[in-house]
Design a protein that fits this description.
alpha/beta, six-stranded parallel β-sheet, three-stranded antiparallel β-sheet, 403 residues, 2 domains
Length: 403
């Protein structure tokens, strides 16, 4: 446990969350709730546990990603394919406020754990269901991963350079956006339950979560038939906003697209003629001549190092920045001052740096209260809280139902 973190219980203290599913979307939603005080019991299969435990780089046999995704949670290792385990889930759901699952549609119903069954047992239960395409519609039964959702939403079509193979965002952005939409849904449902006493089902589709962030993509097509395409490092329709190469082979990201900001930027680069040009006084005029503007900025940037460029633009209050690697992030004083570099003490005594908690709440901040659990670390404790005797727990373990 990281004892240097805030001791605040968090605004969700007392909220009981049951997490089913695996990998990214559902567990990320549960992690977010856990960071702010919710009591999360994660159910994972005995033996290997959640596959995320073995994804990417491992430390002592366990993914360091796992340490982030499952902090503040308890682990109950349970074979959901068995009737005995399904009965345990029903008992847990009876005492839970929220259930989160991200299996393929129909899986929960096949186990007798669908919303018709669970909400009848506990009408106050809020059930978040995350899937590739949602619980309804012609695609509901298709397997859906975040990368497919990103493509279907239109995002993949916009990434990369024109005329080249579209590239993916370097992280599982579809899963994460779906998880965050799920958390929003949970908070809305809690507000409704506070007024009505009734729970409900939240249906989040990965592709819809990404599509919800696609800004003007659809209305521009609807109004003008415009099919937006990839634009590299530029921001189409907003100028100037691009990455410019400096003489040390680094890139400066410069966003001079505000009307007054543009004038200050042109003064810095010695192109006051462009800054006072009436045709460039608003965004529409600048977009029409974006190639000319980009060339002027690019020529100026090429004469300076990235540090020189950023210093000059900072003095002129022009938004700009460098492209960070994770090494830059780990060394950055602003990240550290904002509590975004959570150096936690692992159970073996080693130190591990994890991203800090967002958003920042002044009165009830989130906190890292507990390290990610080993597989089934809390099985006995959770089952005892349900009223199972040591002999009953031992019997379930002997059958391989519990670990």
């Amino acid at each position: 446990m990281d004892t240097s973190s805030s001791s605040s219980a968090g605004p969700l203290a007392g909220l009981k969350v049951l997490e089913l599913g695996q990998l990214i979307a559902g567990p990320f939603a549960a992690k977010t709730l856990a960071d702010f005080g919710a009591e999360v019991v994660k159910i994972e299969p005995p033996g290997a546990g959640d596959p995320l435990r073995k994804w990417r780089l491992l430390k002592d046999g366990t993914s360091v990603w796992w340490q982030l995704q499952s902090r503040n949670k308890r682990s109950l290792a349970l074979d959901l394919k068995t009737p005995e385990a399904q009965d345990i889930v029903r008992k847990l759901a009876l005492e839970s406020d929220v259930l989160i699952e991200n299996f393929r549609p129909g899986a929960m119903e096949g186990w007798g754990l669908g919303p018709d069954e669970l909400l009848q047992l506990n009408p106050r239960l809020i059930m978040l269901r995350i899937s590739g395409y949602g619980q309804t519609g012609p695609y509901r039964d298709r397997p859906g991963f975040g990368v497919v959702a990103e493509a279907m939403s239109g995002l993949r079509h916009l990434t990369g350079e024109p005329g080249r193979v579209p590239v993916r965002v370097g992280v599982s952005i579809g899963d994460t956006l779906a998880a965050l939409h799920g958390v929003i849904g949970i908070l809305l449902a809690l507000q409704h339950r506070h007024a009505s006493g009734q729970g409900q089902v939240i249906d989040v589709a990965l592709y819809e979560a990404v599509f919800n962030c696609m800004e003007s993509l659809l209305p521009e097509y609807s109004a003008f038939g415009a099919v937006r395409g990839p634009a590299g490092s530029a921001l189409p329709g907003i100028a100037p906003s691009n990455a410019y190469r400096c003489n040390d082979d680094s890139y400066a990201l410069i966003a001079g697209n505000g009307d007054s900001i543009f004038k200050r930027l042109m003064t810095v680069i010695g192109r006051e003629d462009l800054g006072v040009d009436p045709a460039l006084s608003d965004n529409a005029g600048r977009v029409a001549r974006v190639a000319e503007i980009d060339e002027a900025i690019g020529q100026w940037a090429a004469q300076h190092t990235v540090d020189e460029v950023l210093a000059l633009l900072d003095q002129a209050s022009v938004p700009a920045g460098r492209i960070y690697t994770v090494a830059d992030i780990a060394a950055d004083p602003h990240y550290r001052a904002r509590g975004m570099l959570d150096e936690c003490r692992m159970d073996d005594g080693s130190s591990l740096m994890l991203p800090g908690i967002v958003p920042k709440l002044s009165a009830t901040p989130g906190s890292h209260r507990r390290n990610a659990p080993a597989i089934g670390q809390d099985s006995d404790a959770v089952l005892k809280e349900l009223g199972l005797s040591p002999d009953q727990i031992r019997g379930l373990r002997d059958k391989g139902i519990v670990a």
